[in-house]
Write a structure and sequence with these properties.
This protein has helices spanning 7-27, 43-59, 74-86, 105-111, 123-130, 139-150, 170-178, 198-203, 253-259, 270-290, and strands at 3-4, 33-38, 62-67, 92-95, 159-163, 187-191, 207-210, 228-231, 235-238, 245-248, 262-263. It is an alpha/beta fold and 296 residues long. Helix content is 41%, strand content 16%. The chain is built from 10 helices and 11 strands. The relative contact order is 0.17. Helix 1 (7-27) runs parallel beside helix 10. It has 2 domains: 28-115, Rossmann fold (3-Layer(aba) Sandwich); 139-271, Rossmann fold (3-Layer(aba) Sandwich), CATH 3.40.50. Bound molecules: NADPH dihydro-nicotinamide-adenine-dinucleotide phosphate. Residues 140, 163-166, 168-170, 191-195, 198, 211-214, 217, 232-235, 270-271, 274 line the site of NADPH dihydro-nicotinamide-adenine-dinucleotide phosphate.
Amino acid sequence: MTEIIDGNAVAQSIRDDLATAIDQLADAGHTPTLATVLMSDDPASETYVSMKQSDCEEVGIEALDIEIDPAADAGELYDTVADLNDDDAVNGILVQMPVPDHVSDRQVLRAIDPEKDVDGFHPENVGRLVAGDARYKPCTPHGIQKLVESAGVETEGKDAVVVGRSDIVGKPMANLLIQKAPGGNATTTVCHSRTDDLAEKTRNADIVVAAAGVPEMIDGDMIAEGATVIDVGINRVEADTEKGYELVGDVDFESAKAQAGAITPVPGGVGPMTRAMLLYNTVKAAGLQHDVDVDL
Ligand code: NDP
């Protein structure tokens, strides 16, 4: 029987565990606080930010909601980030991407104090991750590590294939998989749009992480029997539904499930974990900044 890895349940257990750490901070007189900065009127970005804020409120993290007119000067965003860096009550800063074209996303990421960079995208935090000394693991790959662990899948000595090499998913995922640490020690291949014969790579993998953003591109023929399949993709495809679309992953779920030992669904797999790990990083940040040794 193929195990369907329940991301909602694992995310809930992460949130439950955070309650202890949040109590420890409260005992020391602190409320973890995340500032979200939105410089966009894209409905998807607005939805992501409001979901992050309600997630925070649900577990007892204070959410500061800052909105900047997308037509404003880039300087307004940098000034906002600088103020948040200086504000001792703010533990985590998240600038919702994408920012408008006239703002450099790289410059924004560098402007955030690395100790408050709960996305883990600042070059200092990327460097620490690569060096095996992560301060904040990026939320999606960290969530995937937790999902794999929850399914009782050992990564050590396994062959892993990561499809996608983005800075936010593919690269940090591959880095975590090769770390000399629990959840790592896998022999890892990173595939991308120039990879020759992707199917041959995935078919020989014990663990496949699909993060290409191409609807249902990985099907059962590309999966080894008993493999663990993690589907990161969130793709809107036209469908005969009320909204006129549905969300599908990068994996063709039914055919891959027939081969896999364990698989994540879309929705309800990686997505809820990404959200939970942002809360985790924010609580961790509060512990580090207030010098409270929280249980995480
Ligand atoms: P990007 O578009 O930044 O990166 C996609 C990567 O996939 C690139 O490295 C690209 O290769 C590679 N790729 C594209 N097409 C193919 C192909 N046909 N074969 C092999 N590789 C291919 O995407 P992200 O990493 O940001 O996101 C990936 C997916 O995950 C998206 O669907 C996104 O919505 C979703 N996502 C989900 C999250 C969650 O919480 N569940 C969080 C973040 C993202 P190249 O570098 O050569 O262009």
